[in-house]
User: Fold this.
Amino acid sequence: MMNEPAVVMKDVMKSFDGGKDYVLKGINMEIPRGSLTAIIGFSGTGKSVMLKHLLGLYKPTSGSVRVLGTDLSKLSPDQLTKFRCRFGVLFQSAALFDDNTVLENVCFPLYEHRRDLKEAQVVRIAEQKLEEVGLDPKHFGKLPSQISGGMQKRTGLARALALDPEILIYDEPTTGLDPILTEMVDNLILSTHKSRPGTTSIMVSHDLSAAFRIADHIVMLDSGKVLLFGTPEDFFKTDIELVKKFVNKGMKHQ
Ligand SMILES: Nc1ncnc2c1ncn2[C@@H]1O[C@H](COP(=O)(O)OP(=O)(O)O)[C@@H](O)[C@H]1O
Ligand SMILES: [Mg+2]
Assistant:
């Protein structure tokens, strides 16, 4: 169904030890298409494990995960690999290939998944993506170690955008960055989202003020369950004590 939400999780449970302990304890969630959704919650509460279910890297012990209208459990490993081209992913570390130039890093997914393109076309697309995220062409031939942390993030984002993904996933993209770089990356996430209408952006963030500033939907996980899903406004007027506590504490520490 084309109008289905970008992500639909139903009763998703995940155990890594054969059912003694559950990391995800029945996640029910719908992430609307075209939204910028932030996932928040205490550390160790299942946010990254949940993201890995969206990407099909983990299979739920029970329950179902539908992404862009497709039930991931119905895909063969090959189909799943192909399906993952519809995602762009940026983790905390940009995870660039150290021995490859900035440009080569962005070309990589295109060489891998767009065998139909000629080399010159691949390079042109990669250059466009790098320009889109605000990287000056004079850096394209440098190695990751020769550019700043901010430029490494931009390169990682350009690589995530290379295949024009329908869903962009960020897992703690600003953890460990200084405040100026954090704001730059948050603004980059927002401008990337806005310049690509229809793209669904999902960001796990420990940075509550950023989540409230840029996201249109917020999910709070706690102990493997969804505590609250709503707009930033819903979060400010909630009566759920744990959410209030988390929000007040998080906003104070910024
Ligand atoms: N592959 C794994 N095997 C066993 N336990 C895991 C695995 N991945 C994550 N966990 C556990 O699941 C819990 C949630 O982890 P995670 O989703 O990474 O938390 P966070 O909300 O900080 O992203 C943690 O207790 C973690 O130790
Ligand atoms: Mg995590």
Remarks:
- The longest strand covers residues 7-14.
- DSSP finds nine helices and ten strands in the chain.
- The two ends are 41 Å apart (CA to CA).
- The CA atoms of residues 119 and 246 lie 50 Å apart.
